[in-house]
Write a structure and sequence with these properties.
The structure holds two protein chains of two kinds. In chain A, 57% of the residues lie in helices and 12% in strands. Chain A is α+β, with helices and mostly antiparallel strands. By secondary structure, chain B is an alpha+beta fold. The chains are: A alpha+beta, B alpha+beta.
């Protein structure tokens, strides 16, 4: 057989591809098993005429987005943040309409006024929480408890809003997750996770993704999600090992460098702040490398696991992110942002999005036609805004 | 050359979706007598311009023509659509014109950088100072008490100095004249022992000051301790504790919002760098206050500079055991510039 992702030949019994290292896809839940793509990475041909591969494309351009970004930013500042709701709509419209699969682009339908309302409520809520924390730690704790109790509901609303405002080929997405499930995923499981000293984190992550993906629908067609918990534990184990190796390696580099600096220093104790400053810069660099490494590894591994086990009807998704490429993009993006006083930010956003999107693909019988719409409903933007302030990234 | 009438009659290629099924229909879009007209092999539809929504240009992203019932057209050839709309007198929104103009974009870049530098240098400290001055006294008291309680349970141990000695020092500081001739503020001076902090002193926002036994031991005369306390009093008078809290919060929020997408953890590094400058600025302000207090009480400012040098040396000595880093990170990194600034005043 051949690797489903890179097309390299692999033994029938192998669980992982020797070339790209990706796990063999479990296809048993599909009505009919999808035949593997034969080895022809340059020009992928399809073995059965009914199965088509649709790689995702991202056509956004950094220079073009920069203009939109800087005008958005300036207008938001000049209007004391009010324009930021309009800016958000323009930003998302830009990214959605430049994301394409099977010859059609996505579209965003959020309304600025709805987003603005959500932002105002969120600011009042979290401002109240902050003020309560300043007044007295006990009052702050009480406010945090109230917020925590409301958070799952907000998350649910946020997911509803996000999907209901996204469309593809004229059909909206929908989110059918219940509040009961939300309370279990966002409140119950995290509590158990804390009690288990965070040993349940991969399990919680899997339940979270299952909540997001298995409850999503495109028109009337439901998404399915069948990633096993073991895949999440494996991703976390690899991340842990990788980060450990990265931390040890960068500390060795730092130690060698600082020994060299000490040896090369002619006289100490003259109040020269030279040595400590270099060491602080070194420690900061180690910190950034390890933090970015953690993020990149988790992001790439989890994203791949999640999408390889997500399907839309008979269409399967695939994701072939490589952690070292994500890491390179994240580190160079951060450097660019720092060196340009933030002006590189729009280019950074485009770069990362382009890589993540273009590594996605959709495989299934025929073109993406014949999906049918479901009845729509209006969803408020409040949940999403409140969740955004807390910085929970629930990006779909 | 296209004549104006040709431009008005142009047909633009588009993909039509009816909003009920994901099936794509190839159509052409024309504008006729105030109506949008779609025609294709299996689609023919017209709607008044007032009843449809044409999305604003977004760079080269496809533009969308939305109908009231959820049906829509995606236009890839945005240049052709823009020409058609312009021929019918429909100009793009002003925001789009700004995005399209190189002059506006460059102006925006200049304003952005200027704003960033100015708000970091002046805006954030000014806002933090205003907010800090608005925090009511009871809150400051609670905040300070909680902090001291937390420290007393962990890094601070009871002082081994005789109570009489503690009282002498505290009373002497209470009797110092304030620089502007105002009655001296009420400070409570507490003594604690701490191996972690070494020779050190700090002030809580409520005016409670904590002096370590090591600092008392390091002083050659009582005036040395008065000088350090005057510096700490500067932190209290100028509400430095709260200001730093707010300044750092604002910077952390801004950086996280800005870099947030990349990674929360990675965003912490530039935040720490940006915040370091603020604490250095505040140290300098407190030094200025100390110099004024010393002058008002006829204490030579050499008491202060020599004490700072001794604290610095002690921290460096301690640092050699605990690593150079800990010495540098100790709360009062004495640098040449700081001493020079005090002497030059």
């Amino acid at each position: 057989m051949y690797c489903h992702y890179c097309g390299a030949p692999m033994p029938d019994v192998a669980q992982f591809c020797a070339r790209c290292g990706l796990e063999r896809v479990v296809v048993d839940f599909l009505p009919e098993a999808v035949p593997p793509v034969p080895a022809a990475p340059a020009a992928p041909t399809v073995s059965t005429p009914s199965t088509e591969r649709h790689p995702f494309e991202f056509t956004g351009d950094g220079k073009e987005y920069f203009r939109i970004w800087i005008v958005n930013l300036l207008l938001s500042v000049v209007t004391l943040g009010i324009y930021s709701a309009w800016a958000k709509v323009r930003r998302l419209e830009y990214f959605y309409r430049h994301t394409r699969v099977a010859g059609a682009a996505f579209d965003y339908h959020g309304r600025p006024i709805a987003i603005l309302k959500g932002r105002i409520i969120a600011v009042v809520l979290f401002g109240g929480y902050y003020a309560a924390g300043l007044l007295s730690p006990m009052l702050g704790l009480a406010a945090a408890a109230v917020l925590a109790a409301g958070l799952p509901w907000m998350m649910n609303r946020s997911l509803r809003f996000r999907l209901a405002t996204s469309s593809y080929r004229g059909l909206r997405f929908h989110f059918h997750g219940s509040n009961r499930q939300a309370y279990w995923v966002f409140l119950g499981l995290p509590l158990f996770n804390a009690l288990s000293l965070f040993a349940l984190t991969p399990l919680w992550h899997q339940r979270l993704k299952r909540y997001q993906h298995a409850n999503a629908a495109y028109g009337q067609t439901r998404f399915t999600f069948n990633a096993p918990v073991s895949a999440f534990y494996k991703a976390y184990a690899i991340t842990f090992a990788g980060v450990l190796a990265l931390a040890v390696a960068s500390f060795i580099v730092l130690a060698v460098l600082s020994v060299g600096v000490v040896a090369g220093l002619p006289q100490q104790g003259t109040g020269q702040p030279f040595l400590p400053e270099m060491l602080i810069a070194g420690a900061l660099a180690v910190y950034v490398v390890v933090a970015a490494g953690t993020w990149s590894l988790t992001m790439a591994l989890i994203q791949n696991v999640v999408w390889r086990h997500t399907a839309l009807g008979a269409h399967r998704f695939g994701s072939t992110l490589e952690a070292h490429k994500v890491f390179f993009i994240v580190i160079t993006n951060l450097l660019g942002i720092v060196l340009t006083l933030g002006l590189y930010k729009p280019f950074a956003d485009i770069r990362l999005t382009r890589y993540v999107v273009t590594e996605l693909e959709l495989t299934g019988p025929g073109a993406l036609e014949g999906f049918v719409a479901a009845g729509g409903d209006e969803v408020s933007a409040f949940g999403e805004e409140a969740a955004e302030i807390l910085d929970f990234d629930l990006a779909f | 050359l296209i004549s104006p009438s040709d431009a008005r009659d142009a047909a633009v290629a588009a993909a039509y979706y009816d909003g009920r099924e994901s099936t794509r229909h190839e159509v052409t879009v024309r504008i006729e007598a105030g109506e949008v007209v779609l025609s294709g092999r299996d689609v023919s539809r017209r709607a008044p311009l007032a009843a449809i929504e044409i999305s604003q240009p977004l760079g080269t992203a496809p533009r969308v023509i939305r109908f009231g019932d959820g049906a829509f057209c995606a236009v890839e050839d945005t240049a052709a659509l823009a020409a058609l709309l312009a021929a019918h007198g429909m100009d793009p929104a002003r925001v789009t014109q700004w995005e399209g103009s190189l002059r506006w974009v460059w102006a925006a870049v200049v304003v952005f950088v200027l704003m960033l530098v100015l708000s970091y240098r002046y805006g954030v400290p000014a806002v933090a100072a205003v907010v800090a001055s608005q925090v009511p006294a009871p809150i400051i008291d609670v905040l300070s008490r909680e902090t001291l309680d937390a420290l007393d349970g962990s890094v601070l141990l009871p002082s081994t100095l005789p109570v009489s000695r503690q009282k002498t020092l505290a009373d002497r500081f209470q009797r110092l004249r304030a620089p502007d001739g105002a009655p001296p503020a009420q400070y409570s001076v507490l003594f604690r022992r701490s191996s972690l902090l070494g020779a050190n002193a700090f002030a809580l926002p409520s005016g409670t000051m904590v002096v370590t036994d090591d600092l008392v031991a390091l002083a050659a005369r009582d005036d040395d301790i008065m000088a350090v306390l005057a510096h700490e009093a500067g932190h209290v008078e100028l509400r430095h504790g709260l200001r730093l809290l707010f300044q750092n919060s604002i910077v952390a929020l801004a950086v996280t919002w800005f870099v947030g997408d990349v990674s929360m953890l990675v965003a912490a590094a530039p935040t720490a760098l940006l915040q370091a400058k603020y604490s250095r600025d505040l140290e300098r302000e407190a030094d200025r206050h100390a110099v004024a207090v010393l002058a008002a009480n006829a204490i030579p400012r050499e008491r202060f500079t020599s004490m700072l040098e001794r604290i610095d040396a002690a921290a460096r000595g301690k640092g050699e055991e605990g690593g150079v880093l800990s010495a540098y990170l100790s709360s009062h990194p004495v640098t040449r510039e700081r001493l020079d600034a005090i002497r030059a005043r």
